[in-house]
Every structure is written in structure tokens, then in C-alpha cells.
Write a structure and sequence with these properties.
Layout: H1 2-20, H2 28-36, E1 41-47, E2 59-62, E3 79-83, E4 89-90, E5 96-97, E6 107-112, E7 123-131
Parallel strand pairs: 3-7, 4-7
Antiparallel strand pairs: 1-2, 1-6, 2-3, 4-5, 6-7
Length: about 130
């Protein structure tokens, strides 16, 4: 009985630790404030042809090929953008834009922490995505 209790307690501690280590989520307003104060950066990208037609979840972007030697997250095949929270794209007025309205090559401004995961494809975490 003590072993079962110990295993359950250990699992509960691991779950608690994992929940606490997750990066914080921000509201669009908080992201805007962090960008204005320089706590978070932005980069311009272009909506990729690799995206699923259902227009849900994470998506791919492409960067100008001139950035190939500058950014670790450049990939000729596209860079995966994972959303922090809800997978939403906003227009300049702050309204949600249905993904079905975003076309290949559409300019996007991505607010992110400046880091890329060294995966294939490279992955960045978006805190807010706005039409350029």
C-alpha cells in the first residue's frame, strides 16, 4: 500500500512541476505592451503554401531568402509557427481574421521571443500574429 501511495504522490509531483514550468500565456493587449516596451520582438513573414486547408492550429511561414544566413529559424521549406494559446490571426484593428481569408504570400507580423527550436522544420512560438 505504501508503494502505491508513493507512486501516486511522485506522479502528482511530476504533473505539478510540468504545469508550473509552462511558459506564460499573454493576452493580445499584453503582447502589444511588451512589443512597445521592447520586452518582445516582432518579425515579418509570409503565409506559406504548406498550410493545411482547414486553417486551424499552427501554421507555416516563409521569410525573405536574404535572411537565410542571418536567422537560425530560416528554412527554405518554411518555418513552423506554434501559437502560445489560441491560434488566431488579427487584422490591424485587432479583429480576428478567419484563416480561410489569408492567402499564400500574405504578409504577417509575428510577435515572439526571438528564439527558435532547432527542429526540422525550425519552430518559433508566436504570442500574437497580425496581418501586415
Amino acid at each position: 500500500m505504501k508503494r502505491v501511495f508513493s507512486v501516486i504522490l511522485a506522479l502528482a509531483m511530476l504533473v505539478s512541476l510540468a504545469a508550473c514550468s509552462k511558459a506564460p500565456s499573454y493576452t493580445p493587449e499584453q503582447v502589444e505592451e511588451m512589443v512597445e516596451t521592447g520586452e518582445m520582438g516582432t518579425i515579418q513573414a509570409f503565409y506559406s503554401v504548406r498550410n493545411a486547408e482547414d486553417g486551424k492550429g499552427d501554421f507555416y511561414v516563409q521569410f525573405n531568402s536574404a535572411l537565410e544566413n542571418v536567422f537560425d529559424f530560416y528554412s527554405e521549406d518554411g518555418t513552423l509557427v506554434e501559437f502560445d494559446g489560441k491560434a488566431v490571426v488579427y487584422d490591424k484593428e485587432g479583429n480576428e481574421v478567419p484563416r480561410s481569408e489569408i492567402k499564400y504570400g500574405q504578409g504577417l507580423i509575428i510577435a515572439f521571443n526571438g528564439e527558435a527550436e532547432d527542429t526540422d522544420p525550425p519552430t518559433i512560438k508566436a504570442y500574437k500574429v497580425t496581418l501586415a
